[in-house]
Write a structure and sequence with these properties.
- The chain is α/β, with parallel strands linked by helices.
- It has 2 domains: about 230 residues, Rossmann fold, CATH 3.40.50; about 210 residues, 3-Layer(aba) Sandwich (Rossmann fold), CATH 3.40.50.
- The protein starts with 10 loop residues before the first strand and ends with a strand.
- The N terminus is likely disordered.
- The longest helix has 18 residues.
- The radius of gyration is 28 Å and the shape is elongated.
- β1 and β2 form a beta hairpin.
């Protein structure tokens, strides 16, 4: 697909279909470049899921032409004054284009008096008056609810489709539909595109997802894509998928040294570059120290490193680095990047997609995620998390990024097998307590493709970091 070099253009021609931008680059990518022009699209979801915001963001992104404006028609869902009042709270709102490139109109009075029969005359009237390039009807489901006959609704939709096609108008029918109504309601039969928005309650917060159910004549990214509502509309986080491997892909054979005294010897020289290691252990066994040393050593070796943490804030992390005899300010100047997000409001999809972009943009070569358990606690879909981590790890392999994922275990529960399978190396840390003293130990459970030491070794945390005897 070839995109226009002009980022301000609202239409993209990919050689086959002209596309309508949504105003959200991530959503455009999910749609394969945007909605196909001159199509009929349904934006569906329960009340409050973000349908109207998606439609209005698209409207203002395409408000560039007074000769062919963008038209919003309200029905019986909300008064037009209320729609515009809430619209003004968003940053994409531009009063200068109202009544010119963007026009708001209402069909409520006509629907109340004449029922669904009012739609066709209204469409003909506004198309002849404005010749709009885009029409949004919100809520179209309200028109459906007024019908008393499915055959009549089907005939009306056939005429609506013909009018819109004849005048090369792209339509968005917004409604409170559910997926079980798709095989029943006739509007889904005429729709070229269908976007479903959903809101799911998880603990004390809501998680929002969108999914493309249909996009006629176009490819699109399948699956659930997370989003949140911000001041600029919908902030979308496309589902992370595994990279496409080149036919001539060659694995890296050099090693990444950890900087941990005695550990690289156990692996005959260090970790494979581009590999993933899970460091598991109970509280106090040294997992965070292990990750901090690995990241700091990467910076000293000239590799940009990213340390991701969901428990210790930056002040606490600075103290942890100082306890290892390292200067955090100096490490950051040389290429250490810190990413902190509280585990309380952790949204897994948005975090992992954001991390992927940081790793790509900052040319990161070492990553520490401390800890995977916090990601597990923040999701009600462990399989979805595993798929995300698998895709992320595959991007690491292709990009030569060496990663460490810490995982807190108990004396009963070890690392989940679904996660250990994505790792090339698994390291187990233990804290053995008797009446006289506590003793830390380290053991390499597996190291894919490496001749490694299988014995348990004593481990000490000193002022210079971890030392293995």
């Amino acid at each position: 697909m070839v995109r226009s070099a002009d980022e301000n253009k609202t239409e993209i021609d990919d050689g086959a279909l002209t596309r309508i931008k949504t105003g959200n680059p991530q959503l455009d990518d999910i749609l394969g470049g945007g909605f196909p022009a001159n199509s009929i699209n349904i934006v569906m979801g329960e009340p409050g899921s973000g349908k109207t915001i998606l439609a209005e963001r698209l409207m203002f992104a395409n408000a560039t032409d007074n000769e062919r404006p963008v038209l919003f028609i309200s029905t019986l869902s909300e008064p037009l004054e209320k729609v515009v009042r809430y619209l003004q709270q968003f940053t994409f709102y531009d009063e200068s284009v109202l009544a010119g490139a963007v026009i708001y109109d209402s069909l409520g009075t006509e629907l109340a008096e004449h029922g669904p029969d009012a739609l066709i005359p209204k469409l003909k009237e506004v198309i002849e008056a404005y010749s709009p390039k885009i029409i949004v009807i919100d809520s179209f489901k309200a028109i459906h609810d007024l019908t008393t006959s499915m055959p009549d609704m089907r005939r009306m939709l056939y005429e609506v489709s013909g009018i819109l096609s004849a005048y090369e108008t792209t339509a968005f029918l917004v409604g409170e539909y559910s997926e079980d109504q798709i095989p029943i309601f006739p509007e889904f039969a005429v729709a070229d595109g269908m976007v479903a928005l959903a809101r799911k309650k998880y603990g004390s917060r809501d998680e929002r997802y969108l999914r493309i159910l249909k996009l006629r004549g176009s490819s699109y990214a399948e699956g659930l894509h997370a989003f949140r509502i911000s001041d600029d509309g919908l902030e979308v986080f496309p589902r992370l998928v595994s990279p496409q491997y080149a036919v001539g892909y060659e694995r890296k054979t050099d090693r990444a040294t950890t900087g941990i005294d005695g550990f690289d010897v156990l692996l005959n020289g260090g970790l494979w570059r581009g590999s993933t290691t899970i460091v598991e252990g109970a509280t106090g066994t040294g997992k965070t120290t292990f990750g901090l040393q690995f990241a700091a050593n990467g910076v000293r070796d000239g590799e940009a490193s990213l340390y991701i943490n969901f428990q210790e804030n930056p002040t606490q992390l600075a103290r942890a680095f100082e306890n290892l005899g390292a200067d955090l300010d100096e490490l950051q100047q040389r290429g250490l990047h810190l990413f902190y997000h509280s585990a309380v409001e952790l949204q897994v999809d948005s975090i992992l997609v954001e991390l992927f972009h940081i790793i790509r943009d900052k040319k990161i070569k070492r990553v520490v995620i401390d800890a995977v358990g916090d990601l597990m606690s923040a999701t009600n879909d462990i399989e979805r998390l595993r798929s995300y981590l698998y895709a992320l790890v595959q991007h690491f392999v292709v990009g030569g990024v060496t990663s460490i994922l810490t995982y807190e275990t108990s004396s009963i529960v070890s690392v989940d097998a679904r996660f250990s399978a994505i790792a090339d190396t698994v390291v187990k840390l233990d804290l053995n307590v008797d009446e006289e003293k506590s003793r830390r130990t380290i053991r390499i459970i597996k190291a894919r493709g490496l001749a490694h030491d299988l014995a348990m070794h004593e481990m000490h945390i000193t002022g210079d970091g971890i030392k293995i005897t």
